[in-house]
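Progress note, sequence design subtask.
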C-alpha cells in the first residue's frame, strides 16, 4: 500500500505515523481512536465491517479526513461492483459524491479488481 501512495503522489506521507489500534477488527479502528470527519461514524464503521467480511477490506491509512483501504478480494462481477458502488455513495465521501462527478456506471465498473479504495471528506 505504501508503494501506491508513492506512485500516486499522495501528499502528507512525511507526516505519517504508525499506530497500533486496540480493536478486534480493522473496521472498528476508527471508532476506537475517536476519528472524526464529515461522515456519520456508525454508518461508516458498519460499511467497513461489511466490506471487511465480503472483500477482505482493511483500513491501512488515515490522513486527516482521508481514509485508505486495502482490499484482498475486490468485486469480480458487475452485480457486486454495482452494489459496492452504491455503498460507496452511501459513505457520503466527497470524492465519491462530488469530486469528481463520475457517472455511476463508470465508477462501479472501475471497482472491478481494484485493490485500493480511498475516501475523503471536506
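Output:
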Amino acid at each position: 500500500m505504501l508503494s501506491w501512495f508513492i506512485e500516486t503522489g499522495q501528499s502528507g506521507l512525511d507526516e505519517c505515523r504508525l499506530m497500533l489500534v486496540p480493536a478486534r477488527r480493522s473496521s472498528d479502528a476508527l471508532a476506537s481512536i475517536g476519528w472524526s470527519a464529515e461522515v456519520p461514524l456508525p454508518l461508516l464503521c458498519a460499511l467497513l465491517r461489511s466490506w471487511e467480511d465480503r472483500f477482505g477490506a482493511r483500513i491501512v491509512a488515515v490522513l486527516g479526513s482521508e481514509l485508505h483501504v486495502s482490499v484482498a478480494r475486490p468485486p469480480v462481477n458487475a452485480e457486486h461492483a454495482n452494489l459496492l458502488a452504491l455503498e460507496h455513495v452511501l459513505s457520503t465521501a466527497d470524492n465519491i459524491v462530488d469530486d469528481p462527478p463520475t457517472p455511476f456506471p463508470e465508477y462501479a465498473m472501475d471497482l472491478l479488481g481494484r485493490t485500493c479504495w480511498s475516501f475523503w471528506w471536506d
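The mean pLDDT is 87. Work on this subtask will continue into the next period as scheduled.
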